[in-house]
Design a protein that fits this description.
There is one protein chain. By secondary structure, this protein is of the alpha+beta class. The protein has a single domain, classed as CBS-domain. It has five helices and six strands. Strands 1-2 form a two-stranded antiparallel ribbon. A hairpin with a 5-residue loop joins strand 1 and strand 2.
Length: 159
């Protein structure tokens, strides 16, 4: 079995110019936890997850600075201030851009399982030879595929 046999082909993507607010709406509307970020040709340029957004929007705690006998305290941020400040940030500023792991449509099922398990990824973009996003697979897709395989095998053995 190859990745193309169980990948999701109708991939929801975002652009680097998409704001944090727009991304939150996209994730919520589609009930997903992350998206590949593509350029105008559909080429993969980054990836962003709900975890990236939560970390970006997390207010910092009160900080104490000591410098040249002067001590000052930076006030803890309030969530309302952080949200107001950061909701219009383009996701291109906070997305993961380096060391993005991908799969090809003709990679085998075992490669997908190894990649997801080794790196603890929830989703992996599937990219063709030209660098365009053509699919995505998730841990759920792998479980679903394993489930179908197991139950199909059991029904064949029962016959």
């Amino acid at each position: 079995m190859e990745v193309r046999d169980f990948m999701i082909r109708n991939v929801i993507t975002a652009r680097q110019s998409t704001t944090v607010k727009e991304l939150i709406s996209l994730l919520e509307t589609n009930r997903i936890g992350g998206v590949p970020v593509v350029d105008e040709k559909g080429n993969l340029v980054g990836i962003i997850s709900d975890g990236d957004i939560v970390r970006y929007l997390s207010p910092h705690k009160e900080k104490l600075y000591l410098a040249y006998y002067v001590t000052y305290i930076e006030e803890a941020q309030k969530i309302e201030d952080v949200l107001r400040e950061r909701m219009n940030t383009p996701i291109g500023e906070i997305m993961v851009k380096k060391n993005i792991k991908t799969l090809a449509p003709d990679d085998d099922f075992e490669s997908a399982i190894r990649l997801i398990s080794r790196h603890h990824f929830k989703k992996i973009p599937v990219v063709n030879g030209a660098g365009r996003v053509v699919g995505i697979i998730s841990r759920g897709d792998i479980i679903h595929s394993l489930s179908k395989s197991i139950f199909n095998e059991e029904s064949v053995q029962e016959q």
